[in-house]
Amino acid sequence: MKDDKTIDRSNLTGQETKDVEILRPDLRERFEGLAIQRAKDGADNVFPIRLKMLRKEVNLTQQEMAAIMDVPVRTYSNWEQGRSFPSVERFPHLAAFFDVTVDYLLGVNRETINHRLMDQLAILTPKQREAIEVVLVSMKKSE
Questions:
Q1: What pLDDT does 110 receive?
Q2: Could you tell me the residue ranges of all domains in the chain?
Q3: What's the gap between Cα 128 and its chain centre?
Q4: C-alpha separations of 143 from 98, 112, 136 in Å
Q5: Residue 21 and residue 7: Cα distance in Å, rounded?
Q6: HSE-up of residue 52 (Cα within 13 Å, Cβ side)
Q7: pLDDT for 96-112, tens place per residue?
Q8: Can you list the pairs that 71-77 forms with residues at least 24 positions away whose Cβ atoms lie under 8 Å?
Q9: Cβ(62)–Cβ(38) below 8 Å
């Protein structure tokens, strides 16, 4: 039975997660974001699907991609089949090659990220927001 004070745990797994959730009520919004992301992921692993799609968009074979990423063909094939994943160090290389973000490759929930960003921006003073805008404009110019 759920009431307004409890978090829907249907998408959370592991006793440790539940223990932390109970001990840290200040993280409620983060657990809710996690539950939303897990629900959107469903049973599908987004990474292999996107990796294969991106490779096909540039008309490359798995053998060619394996050579580009400097891994055995079997390793690259396993990535596309969801049997294994690249090391953390290789994700930025894949993202750079395909001109996408690592977030895109992994299927990160943009709504959750944008929500947190907007919450953080909302508490800034107008002067602080102006300073951030100056930094962002200067970054865009340096590209």
A1: 58
A2: 11-43, 46-106, 109-143
A3: 28
A4: 18, 27, 11
A5: 9
A6: 10
A7: 999 988 988 888 755 55
A8: none
A9: no
- CA–CA distance, 132 with 124 (Å, rounded to integer): 10
Tokens of 44: 């599908």
Q: List, in sequence order, the alpha helices (H) in the chain.
A: 15-23, 28-41, 46-57, 62-69, 73-81, 91-98, 102-106, 110-122, 126-142
d(CA 121, CA 115): 10
pLDDT tens-digit profile of 69-86? 999 999 999 999 999 999
Structure tokens given for 22: 């109970």
What's at 121, amino acid-wise?
A: L
User: Tell me, what amino acid is at 78?
Assistant: N
Residue-wise pLDDT for 119-128, tens only, equals: 778 888 889 9
3-state SS class at 36: helix
Q: What is the pLDDT of residues 50-65, one digit of tens each?
A: 999 999 999 999 999 9
* pLDDT tens figures, 9-35: 445 455 566 677 777 878 887 777 777
Please give the class, per CATH, of domain 46-106.
mainly alpha
- HSE-up (13 A, CA, CB side) for residue 125: 3
